[in-house]
Design a protein that fits this description.
By secondary structure, this protein is mainly α. Helices cover 64% and strands 4% of the residues. The protein has a three-stranded antiparallel beta sheet.
Length: 239
């Protein structure tokens, strides 16, 4: 006899002020919940309860979940339903490798296209990161790190490349890896952010790319040291 169903962390985080929400609104809200890191990998996504939360039938919810499966954020298993997608430790490192390659390509173009407004965005993101490091807030560090890296690459203007970069980043978001690395590692990684910011403001593409590669090397080392017994990682061959 099966045990009690594990309660999903997703339901408590859903916000729906409009019963009968459109499929697009349902998709956007589900995606927001998964990307903000409050719904861990492996969390169940009960179709009926999500539909009830939005005041709709299961049909638009199922269609929204199909889209999220395509984005790598949700998994579906026959007879087991939907859940937040899980990565193996190796897959997590692979996604960071992909992000590094895409970011390096974007940074080269971003430096030549950046404006004073882009500089202000990068400076603001860096200040927020600095505050997260000072406060020892791993969740804030994870969130503001994304904001900082996007501030550096967005001026490149390459829509498809940026789309791939954000998609690769999104896949790792439910795990919140930077919230799980030691505070000392976050502080070391933040030193790289300062070097990257200086190179960006100076429009020094070579220095920026070099700093980014150094940063991604340190990121990979930090990821390799993450504990595997948190319950957040999928077992190899069991996803």
């Amino acid at each position: 006899m099966p045990g009690p169903r594990r309660r999903s962390a997703l339901i408590a985080r859903l916000v729906s002020d409009h019963p009968g929400s459109s499929q697009g609104a349902i998709l956007a809200e589900l995606r927001r919940c998964l990307l903000d890191g409050g719904v861990p990998p492996g969390s169940p996504i009960p179709l009926d309860e999500v539909a009830a939360a939005f005041g709709v039938s299961v049909i638009p919810v199922r269609e929204a979940l199909k889209t999220l499966i395509g984005e790598g954020l949700v998994e579906h298993r026959p007879n087991a339903g939907y859940r937040v997608a899980m990565l193996t430790a190796l897959e997590l490192r692979e996604m960071y490798l992909v992000r590094g390659v895409l970011e390096t390509a974007a940074l080269n173009a971003a430096v030549t296209s950046a404006t004073p407004e882009d500089d202000e965005n990068a400076l603001a993101a860096h200040r927020a990161l600095e505050e997260a490091v000072t406060d020892g807030d791993g969740r804030a560090y994870h969130r503001e790190s994304r904001r900082f890296h996007l501030a550096l690459v967005r001026p490149c203007g390459m829509r498809r490349l940026l789309g791939m970069f954000e998609s690769a980043w999104n896949i790792t978001e439910p795990l919140q890896p930077m919230a799980h690395v030691p505070a000392t590692d976050r502080a070391r990684l933040h030193l790289d952010h300062g070097v990257m910011l200086t190179a960006f403001l100076n429009r020094d593409a070579d220095a920026l790319v070099t700093a980014a590669r150094t940063h991604h090397g340190l990121l990979q080392s930090s990821l390799e040291a993450l504990p595997l017994d948190t319950g957040l990682f999928a077992e190899p061959g069991n996803i």
